[in-house]
Amino acid sequence: MGDSAGDVKTDLKFHGPIDGNVLAAMALARFGVDRMFGVVGIPVTSLATRAVSLGIRFIAFHNEQSAGYAASAYGYLTGRPGVLLTVSGPGCVHGLAGVSNAMANAWPLVMISGSCDQRDFGRGDFQELDQIEAVKPFSKFSVKATDISEIPNCVARVLNSAVSGRPGGCYFDLPSDVLHQTVTETEAERLLAAAEEFSHREVIHRVPNSQIEEAISLLKRAERPLIVFGKGAAIARAEGPLKKLVESTGIPFLPTPMGKGLLPDTHQLAATAARSLAIGKCDVALVVGARLNWLLHFGEPPKWSKDVKFILVDICKEEVEMRKPHLGLIGDAKQILESINKEIKDDPFCLGKSHPWVEAISQKARDNVAKMEVQLARDVVPFNFMTPMRIIRDAITALGSPAPILVSEGANTMDVGRSVLVQTEPRTRLDAGTWGTMGVGLGYCIAAAVASPDRLVVAVEGDSGFGFSAMEVETLVRYQLPVIVIVFNNGGVYGGDRRTPQEITGPYKHDPAPTSFVPSANYHKMIEAFGGKGYYVETPEELKSALSESFSARSPAVINVKIDPYAGAESGRLQHKN
């Protein structure tokens, strides 16, 4: 099915009294919402139906967890709040997975949940829960409409809060009695008009020019400068000024896993394949839209030099103050990079290809890539992780532009894929992210297909990661989304039963290992049950054929790739060995 933005019918007229469902839908449409994700039921089914009649596309899921992950990824890919709709009580609790994921990744999301009748709260009403209190630890802002007249203002505030400052997850509570209250058409329009003043983003303050000059001075004086960027730069749409800065100064760059693609992985100044050298030896690091958390080893020795000077660019003042960089530039990443470029233009500098630092990074990257290519060149059957990953890489590369959006989830599958699969365009990689969240795969796929209908979506999933949300393959088929799900099937978490003989003991020693699944599971048959296309592959030729056919068809498909169960290893954190 096609998917085009900007078709919200905000002028659709409802005659007679306007109830809370209609008013909420009108407010969402009026303030720019064009897509919603969720699971309907009492008391929000009418809200979803009314939203659809106003031109908002509603993508219905099988569980709120996957719908929440979809809404969070949609917020990242579009820069506008992804909206999640759930029922009350357990529906709200399930949706917290999406809200917390949005908070961890700093993506804009709004969860809207129905709740029990206010008069019956505390008496054991159907699905009763103090949802405002339940969401507080996981959200940046929450609000409850206690009367229908509050709905438009609440919608405007919650949408605005999701994108203001550092983006994050927000919550809007709609009691069932409020949804059934009514106002006149005239009163509805008055309430909507009054709420519009809250529907605009805050103005981001400009960084003082003295700080811009100090940042440039640090980069100029550095012997081994490095530019690091992450998904904060991606959501700020900072790729243009970032490219200009890198290419005008000749400074090597290092993306975080989801920063990949803002500049192509194939760029001559990319330091991804020389990561250990780059972060271990740099003396000044300009970090743009990336937090100095576990993904960047907290910016501390031994991974980083004890003398490195960080210039930290972040939208969040508290983040900068917590990290205590040498220099903090607080504001929008794109604006700050544009200011740096403007200042450099008057007094340019460039390291040049023959600069010792650039040469060292380039040589190390070439050496590490060459070593990896030796491993990738061999066709290993039964499959290890490298052989199918190379075949997938080559098939994706052959598609050209627009590049597919890659969804990567799993332990070994994600780790190997991060090194092998190449990103050449912005916001075309979605993975477990800051929280290392498993179960995001199918939700992210659906969000990507809805947000970027011109792109193919390719998911490379471990069988464990796939299992969290596998039922959503029915959703792919129902909406005919161009998503190809590739499952690396090695029989379990990390590869099935890895126990030593000494560990196989006790009264339940004949049970399957905690890490093992049914061997050689026919995951591809799941999508066939709903009318999609399934493939089972064991050889390079079979995989190449399945990829070629499914990529050309651009229809929902699952490719079940049989992997040697002993090919993987336990992986708890992202391991960077180059």
Distance N to C terminus: 43 Å
Q: What is the CATH topology descriptor of the largest domain?
A: Rossmann fold
**How much strand?**
15-25%
Number of strands: 19
EC number: 4.1.2.63
Protein name: 2-hydroxyacyl-CoA lyase
Function: Catalyzes a carbon-carbon cleavage reaction; cleaves a 2-hydroxy-3-methylacyl-CoA into formyl-CoA and a 2-methyl-branched fatty aldehyde.
Subunit structure: Homotetramer.
Describe the structure.
The protein is α/β, with parallel strands linked by helices. Helix 4 links the parallel strand 4 and strand 5 (109-115). The two termini are 43 Å apart. The protein has 3 domains: 18-198, 3-Layer(aba) Sandwich (Rossmann fold); 209-362, Rossmann fold (3-Layer(aba) Sandwich), CATH 3.40.50.1220; 378-577, Thiamin diphosphate (ThDP)-binding fold, Pyr/PP domains (Rossmann fold, 3-Layer(aba) Sandwich). Strands 3-2-4-5-7-6 form a 6-stranded parallel beta sheet. It has a 6-stranded parallel beta sheet with strand order 15-14-16-17-19-18, with helices on both faces. The radius of gyration is 25 Å and the shape is globular. Helices cover 40% and strands 15% of the residues. Residues 1-7 and 572-578 have low confidence and may be disordered. It contains 22 helices and 19 strands.
